[in-house]
Amino acid sequence: MARALALAACGLGTTSPNPPVGAVIVRRGRVVGEGYHRRAGAPHAEALALSRAGPRARGATLYVTLEPCCHLDKRTPPCVPSIVAGGIMRVVVAVRDPNPKVRGRGLTALRRARLRVDLGVGNAEAERLLEPYRRLVTSGRPFVTLKVASTLDGKIATARGESRWITSPAARKLVHQLRARSDAVLTGSGTVLADNPSLTARAGSAQGHQPLRIVLDPTLRVPLRAKVLRDRKAPTLIVTTETGAAANRAALQKIGAEVLVLPSRQGRIQWRALLSELGRRGIASLLVEGGAEVNASVLREGVVDRVLVFLAPTLLGGRDAVGAIGGLSPARLSGALHLKRVSVMRVGPDLLVEGKLK
Question: Which position among 34, 46, 67, 125 bears the catalytic label?
């Protein structure tokens, strides 16, 4: 199962709206076939493993990170009939599929075909890989990760807006890997104006995957010369409101950007409307790399699933420096957000604190 999980991880960022899945076929203690799902519409992991195993699959055990599918509402054939026809005798599954179209039906079909089925091996590791897929199929919206890079005292920029680079090259390399494993990366127009980022994944994507770049720009103030609009390295979606000038929308569309107009509340884009639209497009994982106000707004809406905070061993100080989260603070400590299942790791000289809000 460890090998199947490693294979499944190779598909992170490229399979949505499908899940990343790995499969390994073992016969008499030897691997005779393996594979992982690469992209939506491509063969499933089980089909690839069966194809590579050929007749050696008869009497073998299939290890797979997600319950094999059995429904027809997709572009590829269901896996259960192929598993049975291939002569597999035992199937070891890490996680039951949360998709309502499957959710145990694949396991039941395998057992009815008199195959031995074991469930739960590698469950915790598989669940981590499947978090975005689970969020998408159960709620219709992406799994949202908020990433912050700050000094030890929580500052993300000086009073003059200087922020490059607070964290180390090692931390930045890991951020590029996170982008490569995400379907979309989001920032605000303020960050584009201040830093002019590319928001591309420059490391960690074996398949050359680039996430969709999303810029929140309620009044369409992002300049047409911005890298996210001009470098052609990845598609860009500008999200605006009805206050964005029609002429500006046309100019953005003319240079290849997509412009999405969403409802606003007090001049701010409504996160839930945006996430519903992204879910409709099959985007399962969203990485938010915003400034203080974007960070505050997404947390205030209660839609963040995971928080990643890179802490540099630096103290900036000053009431005028920019804090990681803008807006107004709660009146009482009871109003603070508390992270769950917190972990801490070293990334070069920096610390990475990870926790869940849901």
Answer: 46
Cβ contact 215:237 at 8 Å = yes
The arithmetic mean of pLDDT across residues 176-194, rounded, is 94
Mean pLDDT of the chain: 93
Handedness of CA 247, 265, 307, 183 (dihedral sign): negative
Are the CB atoms for 271 and 248 separated by under 8 Å?
no
Residue 73: CB atoms within 10 Å: 8
* Contact between 150 and 165 (Cβ < 8 Å): no
- Tokens linked to 288: 């938010």
| CA–CA gap between residue 293 and residue 299 (Å, rounded) | 10
* Count of other CB atoms within 10 angstroms of residue 329: 12
Please calculate the CA angle 190-192-193 and round it to the nearest 5 degrees.
65
Please tell me the predicted confidence (pLDDT) of residue 198: 92
Residue 206, pLDDT > 50, answer no
Query: How crowded is the C-beta side of 294, counted as CA atoms within 13 Å?
Result: 23
In angstroms, the CA 8 to CA 1 distance is 10
The CA distance from 151 to 204, in Å, is 25
Cα four-point dihedral sign 350, 351, 354, 355 = negative
> Is 46 noted as a catalytic residue in this protein?
yes
What is the pLDDT confidence band of residue 358, given thresholds at 50, 70 and 90? confident
Give the pLDDT of residue 264.
84
Q: What is the pLDDT of residues 55-82, one digit of tens each?
A: 999 999 999 999 998 875 666 788 999 9
Residue 110: phi and psi, rounded to 5, are -65, -40
pTM of this prediction? 0.91
3-state class of 292 per DSSP? helix
Mean pLDDT of 325-345: 92
Strands (E), the chain: 22-27, 30-36, 61-66, 90-95, 116-119, 143-151, 155-157, 184-188, 212-216, 236-240, 258-261, 264-265, 268-269, 285-288, 306-312, 322-323, 340-347, 350-356
